[in-house]
Amino acid sequence: MEEGIEHLKKHVFAMQPLSDEAWQDLAGIWQLHHYKRKTILTAAGETERHVYFVLNGVQRIFYIDAHHEATLVFTYPYSFSGIADSFLTRLPSRYFLETLTSSTLLRSTHTQFQQLMEKHRDIEKLISTFTAFALMGVLERHVELLTYSAEEKFRTLLKRSPHVLQLIPHKYLASYLGMDATTFSKLMATVRIE
């Protein structure tokens, strides 16, 4: 647990340095949880009650309806996870969060974060900074999905996160890139990874 909290501190302080008191309070709200592979942590229709910090394993956020399944986000060490819009707005999620592999996560609740934001201005700033970076990532991804060719999407993914080919089943990577599995396989065979 201590090593996980140190990874959390490094990640948090890279975004927003905190006072000693704020950090001690933030470090104290996490619990260590282990989940089996293919565990649904949050289902569509539920309001996200937790925020997670990933210590081990891979998770995905996905959307599903009668006709489509689309992978929206992958999380892996050392990053935050959870259905952020539902967590922040307190509205039911339209998405699922599941573990793709067995996972070790630090977990905290919305209530605990709310109390810390009311007590510490710098934790409120941390949440604001995190939200701004998340929005920036969503907008960048939106541009990629709307304007990039299949090969450009593939190359961008590998440039940003080359390790995902070994971590994540290719059918989920294809879904994340908005292409079918056949196109993804062709790109795997023809695109030189630099």
From TrEMBL:
SMART domains linked: cNMP
InterPro entries: cNMP-bd_dom, cNMP-bd_dom_sf, RmlC-like_jellyroll
Pfam family, one: cNMP_binding
Record-annotated Cyclic nucleotide-binding domain positions: 14-132
Protein name from the UniProt record: Cyclic nucleotide-binding protein
The organism of origin for this protein: Niastella populi
Signal peptide boundaries: none
Gene3D superfamilies the record matches: Jelly Rolls
